[in-house]
Amino acid sequence: MRLEPRSHVPLWLNLAAPLSAVALAFVLCALLIVWAGAPVFAAYGALLNGAFGSVFAISETLTRAAPLIFTGLAAAVAFRAKLWNIGGEGQLYAGALAATYFGTGLIELPPFLMIPFLFLVGAIAGGLLLLLPVILKLKLRVDEVVTTLLLNFVVLLFANYLLFGPWKDPLAMGWPQAAPIIDEGVLSPLIARTRLHSGLIWAVFFAVCAWAFIRYSKWGFEIRAVGNNPTAADFAGIPLGATVLRTAMMSGGLAGMAGVCELAGLKGYLTLDLSPGFGYTGIAVAMLAGLHPLGVIASAIFIAAIYNGADAMSRAMSISNYLADVMTATALLLVLASVLFVRFRPRLR
Amino acid sequence: MDLLDIFVSLGFWAALVRMATPLVFGTLGELICERAGVLNLGIEGIMTMGAMVAWMWVYQGGDLWTAVLVAAIFGALFGLLHSGFSVYLGVSQHVTGIGITLLASALSYFAFRMLLPDVTTPPKIDPFKPYPIPGLSELPFLGEVLFTQSPLTYLAFLLVPVVGYGLYRTPLGLALRMVGENPMAVEAQGIDVHRLRTAAVMLGSAFMAVGGAFLTISVFDAFYIGMINGRGWICIALVIFASWRPGKALLGALLFAAFEALQIRVQQSASAFIPYQFFLMMPYVLSILAMIVMSRRAAYPKALLVPFRKGER
């Protein structure tokens, strides 16, 4: 088989490729359900029901989607410029740490200022964490994949130290958790008697911002140019280093805001299980969306639905909810392959 | 405990050699992949998979050495999957690797939970016992440190010269190094670039899986969620630190293990001044430092990350 580049990609193919990849992922994971000894259709029914079956289920899915939109955007923006930021998890915690530092009484502002302020400090913290890997990449050509991955562990251990040490809330009955975010900083609930909070609005807002920025701004154009062909971009006079640095600050900032969103919207105080791997799942979200910021909204909701649905499924029948991780990873790999068939036309020799 | 006391204690040196073992397997495996031009970020997940299947094999009544083989086979299969995407389809090696890691660890945890649904505390198995090598283990000091180890540790240390010899003294090794530098030249020799790279990734991934297996069927006797804990990523840093050379990879792994063994011992006495979390950060921080130090001399294989498509330049 030979691959030849397509000169024109029809719209239907752009949509059909990822959708069929996702469908195939469901088929493959059905084999695992069979292995687990459960009826496939009933299991997927339970999954669908758990994700969208009631107002409460939908609210839970959207609640889970909010941080995934942020981490998905973080990965999408960075990958657009071929900056492989795999440190979303660490940046998420960095954002949450900063928001905890400023938001638990150090600074008190009215809510309409306090919430943007928390997002801002979270974004700055997330961006700063990515600064070291980017400088190392630009100055010393140290691979950013490994450095961002390793920093995830460092940040989590640092959070661990703070939560077991100086930041431990004495009122928390010995649990390792920090003091709660002050009331002015808490994201307001959207629907009564659900956990859905305005973090989702913020996430969608930033997705639209990121889309408009990449689509219409000069810096956004530079990001795309550097990602598509760094040599040509350099030749055209686009500052490579500055562009990568700007991309990194955006990406790290978005991941940091994911931490603020979870902290101020859902948990209320920092714990070590703030994120069940949202930073890593964000990579799958971004790839599923074809690195398109608006697509990230849809794919984050989809992945959140899989996770929430799998939780419900594992409660209903004896299937481990790690199936959600398997499905996400399978979908990621298959979408990766499908994208190739969008860009190239397979020809039999 | 004093630093000096630590350095003269046999336990420290023996622990160092033990802790270096999974890193040696993982680093050699990653080195083989990268020498062939494929960055294998699947390492973390492949090690998890190796750890899980080997443990499960023994838990279900299998034999320890067969468990090593089973781990290697599973590792090679995920290597095959990796190269299906990264070599044959030529998609981004970064994203492929992350995808393989996510898939392999998720499948490991899923299978572990499905095969042992009702267990809350991880059950234990009978792991490899230290095997004193007759004669050599009688030596003072060295006998205890080097020659009273798990058989898998001997295997890891033996593999270093074997891989070195294979890479530098055999035609296959020459071809493998060349495919990472100049795949066009390999193609011109009439060798199938894709097949050679696939073979290298499969072999390397088998090594990684055995490194993971060492943790569950030799050091510990149980499998935990998240037990690889970044060891795979450290191996990737170690490959850079080692300038893609097997001998230096061994050196790097030993150096790292020394810090880890030291860290555990200092942690107990120094925890009054320095919180233990900072000691646990050491391996990750050191990995980053190691990459910074070696960055100027890092001679990446020229075709690393570059997919090869026939008839394209």
Automatic annotation (TrEMBL), chain A:
InterPro entries: ABC_transp_permease
Transmembrane segments: 12-35, 41-58, 112-136, 148-167, 196-214, 277-307, 319-342
Domain of life where this protein originates: Bacteria
Membrane listed as a keyword: yes
Membrane topology: Multi-pass membrane protein
Name of protein: ABC transporter permease
Main localization category: membrane
Organism: Pelagibius litoralis
Keyword list, A-Z: Cell membrane, Membrane, Transmembrane, Transmembrane helix
Cellular component per GO, a single term: plasma membrane
Pfam families assigned to the protein according to its UniProt record, in alphabetical order: BPD_transp_2
GO molecular function: transmembrane transporter activity
Subcellular location: Cell membrane
Automatic annotation (TrEMBL), chain B:
Statement: the UniProt record of this protein carries the keyword Transmembrane helix: yes
TM annotation in the entry: 6-25, 37-58, 64-88, 95-116, 151-168, 199-217, 272-294
Primary site of residence: membrane
A GO term, aspect molecular function: transmembrane transporter activity
Pfam families: BPD_transp_2
Subcellular location per the Swiss-Prot or TrEMBL entry: Cell membrane
Alphabetic keyword roster: Cell membrane, Membrane, Transmembrane, Transmembrane helix
Membrane topology category: Multi-pass membrane protein
GO cellular component: plasma membrane
Protein name from the UniProt record: ABC transporter permease
